[in-house]
Amino acid sequence: MTSEGPTPDSAAAKKTGRAGRDLRAAITVGVSLVALVLLSLFWVKDLFGVVAAVALVVAALEIARALGTAGIRVPLPPVLVGGVAMLVVAFYDDMDTAAAVMALTVIATMAWRLRSGSDGFVRDATAGVFLLSYLFLMGTFVMRMLAADDGPWRVVAFILVTIASDIGGYAAGVLFGKHPMAPTISPKKSWEGFAGSLLAGIACGILVVVYALEGPWWAGLLLGVAGVCFATLGDLCESLIKRDLGIKDMGDLLPGHGGLMDRLDSLIAVAPVAYLVMYLLV
Q: Signal peptide position in this chain (predicted)?
């Protein structure tokens, strides 16, 4: 009779949570990203704009590569140049100028694709406009939050509510998840997890709006509810994109998380509604 030692599979299982993440790697990467964001925000807030632009460019490259597996060729040069220009003018000027830059970039994207002929023109040009809207247009709302006098705290509020939604949903889903929310899109997402997201998001929203932004508690409540709902929609939308393309993650840049886009999916969806709530109520 022989005794068996721990196998590589069992050792890996110990490090991986029930939701399928390598928890140690996920926590390490998550803490590092938060530290980078906070350092850039409160040292020189313009530096955060650089961090955001780099993150969105990397995410665009990840999505373009994923779309490439389906034979879709995104006209990346005009999308990336125009997208970054949108972020810059949204921060230093206003959304009217950013909208004009976006319109010019749409034309430039189609013009760039002309060189490859008519085969797949609509498909590829549409993918370029999709990337421009899905990533860089959403990013302009982050830049407008940042441009305010208390911009760093507005960005922190938006990010913390999104993170709280993710953590609350993950914890409640692992502990209590029994009723799938959208089994054909994201089987591990449950209504119990969504309830946990709401509790965590609302609590975080109220605390950060009241104590960091000196706004009314009910604005924090609204920020929490809206943030959780849009974070959930963003996560489901990206899950559906990946299912459509037949891939598990957008990339492998971040150990324990997947690609950078796999961390930005909720944030980009929350950005416009967070901007609107804080612009109108705080």
A: none
